[in-house]
Every structure is written in C-alpha cells, then in structure tokens.
Sequence to fold (632 residues):
Amino acid sequence: MPYRYLEDIATADVAFEAWGKDLGELFAEAADATTNVMVEGLASIKRKETIDIELRNPELDILLYNFLNELVYLKDARRLLLRAYDITVEKEWPDFRLKAKVSGEAIDHARHRLKADVKAVTLHRLSVRETPEGWKATVVLDI
Amino acid sequence: MRAQLAVPESIKKISDTVWEIPASYKPGMLVPARIYATEKLLKEMDAGVFDQVTNVACLPGIVNYALCMPDGHWGYGFPIGGVAAFDAERGVISPGGIGFDINCGMRLVLTNLTYEEVKPRLHELVDSLFYRIPTGVGSTGFIKLSFSEFEELVEQGSRWCLKKGLAWPEDLELTEERGCFAGADASKVSRKAVERGFDQVGTLGSGNHYCEIQVARPENIFDGNTARAFGFTVPDQVAVMFHCGSRGFGHQVATDYLQVFLDVMERKYGIKTLDRELACAPFNSPEGQAYFAAMKCAVNMAFANRQVILHRIREVFSNVFKKSPEALGMSMAYDVTHNTAKLEDHTINGRRTRLLVHRKGSTRAFGPGMEGIPERYRETGQPVIIGGSMETGSYLMAGLSTGAGAFYSTAHGSGRTMSRHQAKRTYRGEKLKRDMEARGIYVRSDTWGGLAEEAGAAYKNIDEVVEATELAGLSKRVVRLLPIGNIKG
Fold:
C-alpha cells in the first residue's frame, strides 16, 4: 500500500506515511493520502479540471508541506478535490523544484462521500527521507 | 504508550491540582512548567503534553510558567490546553500557541422553552438546524460577499453582523471583546486566506465542531444564583451550544505566518526553537505585529461566523415554534474564544505588567469584578463554556478571582484520549446514532465515520476535567448541560 494512516502520533488528528520509488511518486501518494482524508473512494473524483502547480524550496520536506497546503487551499478556495498526475521533483540548485499537474473536480455532495475537512498541513514530525526501496514521508494533518 | 510512564520523574507536587516540572528538566527552559490536573488526569496525559509544555518554557520572554490545563493533550507546538504569557516588550508571538483554527470557540444561547415543550419537536428542530447550518467539507454559507466586503467583515467581526441585521445589540455585549478584536488589519492577510474564507461565513466546519440542543436539569444546577444570573431560570430549561471557528480563513492565516516566522526567526532574530511548530517572532517586530493584526482578522471572522450561525438558530426555532426569537427568550449567555493571543495586564511580582497571553485550547476565565467582562456578570465572574463530547454533556462555569496563577485561564473541553482511527474501529456511526437515540439524543451528521470519531468514550471524562479546574480555583461549576439533539460536521 503506497500510504497508510498512523494511529499513535496524532490522537486528535490524522497522521500518515507515504512511499514512492521516486520523489514524484511519493508526492503523488501523499496528495492521495491527504485527499482521502476528505473523501472516501478516490475513484469517485473525475478528472474534469487540471491545474499546473510549480513550487520550489531548498528543503524537500517544506516542498511537500507547501504542495499539500496548495491542495488544502484549492479545496476551500475552488472547492476542488484533486489528485496529482505527471509530477516531477528535481534538484535545481539550490532548490528542489516541483512541477505537477493536479486534476479533479468540484465537490459534489451527491456523488462524493465526504469525510473530515483538512484545516492545515502541519510541520509536526514532518519528514521526507530516502530508504533502500525509494522515498518515504511522514505527515500530520490538522483536521 | 499509556500514561503512567509519560509523567516525568522530576515533576513536583505543588498542590492536589498543580504539578511543576522544574526548569532543570530540559536545557533551554527559562521558567518551570506547571500542569493543572488531578493526579488521575495527570497520569492519563500523553507524553506529548510534558514534552511540548517544556518546549514552550524555552520561548523568549515567557513569564512565570508555561502552563497546561486539565484537559491538556498533545498538539502542534503548544499542547492543546497550553497557556503562556510573554512580556509584551521582550517576548514573542507564536502561531503554534494559538492554533490553526484561530478563535475556535463556544457560544451558548438560551431559550425560555422547557424539555417537555421541545421534546415533541426535537427531530424537526435538529433536522431543520442540519439543513440550515452548512456542515462538513466544502460547505459554503448563505451570505454572499465580495472579497472587499469580506475584508470589511474581518476587521469588524460581530459589529458587521449588527449592521447587516444579523445580530441583536445585546449579542455584542455578551461576546468576549464585544465580538471584535480592535486593530484587525485586512492588509496583513493574504489573498489566499480571503479566497479560502469569503464564502464560509455561517458554516460549522467538521471534526469536533457541532451545534447541540441541551437541557439544564434541576439536579444539575450547582450554583442557583449564578445560574440565574447566566439566564437559567426555569427547571429543565433548553439551551443551544455550538462550537466552531474561523474556518479556512483562519487556517490559512496560521499557515501563512508559520512560514513567515520560520523564515525570519533564526536568520533575523537569532531565535531557535525545539520544534518548528513553535516558530515565532518578537512581538515587537514587523512580522510579529503583522501576524497579530492578521490573527485579529481571523478572530473577528470567527465571531462573525458564530453570530451568523446564531441568526440561523434563531430563525429555525422561530419557524418551528411560530414565535419570534425574542418571545422565545433566545438571548446569548456568552461567547468565549479558545485559540487566541491577547494583550492583558496582570500582576507580576507586585507590578501591573502588560502581557501577551497565548491560550490554545484554553478559555479565559476572568473572575468577579475584573475589567473586560460584561457589566451584568461583574458580580458572578465571566461565564465559561466547556464543551463535552456529544454523548456525555457540557458545563457552564464561572471565572474565579483565584485564577491569577494561570493568568485567569481554564479548560476548554474534555480533550481526546482515543485516536480518531481507534474510535472508528471501536464504534460504528450507525449503531452509535441508534444507541444515542435510545437515550434521548437525536443526532445528524454528514458522515458516519465522523460521528464514530466523536463517541463519548473517545474523550476524557468531562466531570473530572471541570472538577479539577474547580479544585484548582480556576473556574467553578454552575450548570451541567445534557445533550438532547446534535448536528455535527
């Protein structure tokens, strides 16, 4: 499973671990883990609208934090539930640069089984690290 | 991971309800940490509380102690239930001491109806509240505002609602700071924050946010005189309590300034913290002042949000009972905020000192005679509204003159003890709804899972929490309110 929710580090909120063979895959899985907190069944999100996101930051974990916060912002500002496609994260000294196409559609109460609202991505125990199998991230969401 | 092992060995018992972790516990602590709790509640606290409250004790300009209230549990940066006061000249301001949901708070509205009168109409009332107050992910309010109108709203709070006919004049008097923190400056707020919040005024949100119909049984009145002063005058009187905050707007303000502070904290001000969620800046710095002005906008948005929801609640009761809200006695008891930083004067070493008091998951609890509480509550102390779980009940308390050691602060709720996942594994939303209905509590929710997460057993025992605050002299019990109807996001 490319992400899993953790029980023991966020009593009142939601924590997850995500994995990917490269950084692009890791960020896409983290995006799914975040969206999946808000809606049951990611397959119910149709690809009606695509937004390009470009971000840069010298720290990988802050880059992930900013990327996920962008999804939270779009959920409120444009009422969009989004998944990440065509995503690359590359070193471009001194920063890491993210280029992503996120696609999805506006919240439809009739069709989407909505769960908890994500208020914010937090820096609590935030990490992105390389493992022998690829990349792994830990993220805590305030809900 | 439970508890008994979490309490640091060096903790010192100061009294039956005050426990001190000395400044020698961790390098960098400038003051000791104090936890207000009975021994039982202390032992039930998670390790995060002790780690985080001692991290807070390291922040520049902290005065006396870093504190945690009896409902304390792990949070971001500060624990939930965390209180810390900083010298306004030398101290810092930290979004981690306020929380992402700025001015998350509680409002209590009275009616002159009794349980017998409400019971036959309960389902109609709850269903109607559920349809009229948007809840859950992506919900938008009925008030349509342009960005510039929204900016006006966040600078004015409840005053904006009064101008628009969405408030009674007395509502403002009965709201902390009269429903508006002075000095809010919308130019310090990002466009993103405005975009997230401008259409969310009048929405409840999700998670632990709710609106509840409650009853004050005669046997649950602890202090008759104060209960009468707070508006409880007939047996089995019905009231409405609700809990919500500044929605996406406040969340974005916190997120934005966390970034700003992370960027300047060490580079510009040479401040290091033990946790990035404690990112801060000197209060007297351009960044600190900008955040304070933006935070006030979020505070005011939350006051306006609760005011608009109150307007809806009055409409619903009025429609169901075919009487005006005035004839139904739908006055507010009070509105309290949980997540703020406020400039207050407190006596430190015999001198009145201006402090920036951070309360995160903690309620201000000013005692009798203190400045800043409504005239009508001068003799009783301010009302303190403590929200319990949707199954067990809530409390209306009063501030006490003995709360100086905690900068006149108290608990805010019961505090979670079970993770949301564990609660969902343990309880089924559908069954919980049926069980609650069998006990006379009718509940509506957007999600079954969300409902299961809020099961009563996922929280600390509210009776123990409020008792601890009373034993500690922070606030006293006035009325225990039992739930009969609940809507949650």
Summary: The interface with chain B takes residues 5, 7-8, 10-14, 38-40, 69, 72-73, 75-77, 79, 107, 109, 113-117, 119-124, 126, 140, 142-143 of chain A (CB under 8 Å).
